[in-house]
What we know:
Layout (H helix, E strand, L loop, with lengths): L8 H19 L7 H8 L3 H7 L3 H17 L1 H8 L2 H30 L5 H22 L9 H12 L7 H17 L7
Helix pairs in contact: 1-2, 1-4, 4-6, 4-7, 5-6, 6-7, 6-9, 7-8, 8-9
Amino acid sequence: MPxxxxxxxxxxxxxxxxxxxxxxxxxxGDTDAHVEDIARSAGVAVGTLYRHFExxxxxxxxxxxxxxxxxxxxxxxxxxxxxxxxxxxRFLLLLVDHAAVGKGMSGVLESIMATDSAVFDDARTRMGxxxxxxxxxxxxxxxxxxxxxGPTLLRALGGVCAMRATxxxxxxxxxxxxxxxxxxxxxxxxxx
Length: 192
């Protein structure tokens, strides 16, 4: 099978403009944003949208996948700039903020929940792996306990973020996340 050709610069710009316009619409709460409106906002024809994304659901998946990709790239930078435990604390708060993004997109994400899309399983795996990286670094530094896995911590945080239907949930979720972080420091082994 021949290798696929790289995307032309103008096609790449159009794709990025479509993703940006869709992200803005969905995060702004426009769960009923039509592909025609998204294409118009991106400055392209609707046919261009369909050349990049076969369906509206494919566009939604890619917007969400991109959000997760950006989020899960953060641990490396956080570890470069902060001590491992502070990097974890900051990433936990980024995950809470990601849940806020998810709240803005929840209506449109529902349209892909009924499909066999792997986007949510992939997101959970990537977030769990990112947390494991940070937990391992913190444990190796003797700053964090070593008996909690990334997927377990993600499940705990998922419970915190499930409150997002409640008014004022974000402030409370951040406070609970700080308590969770304090618990990860309790019982930390001595630095090796």
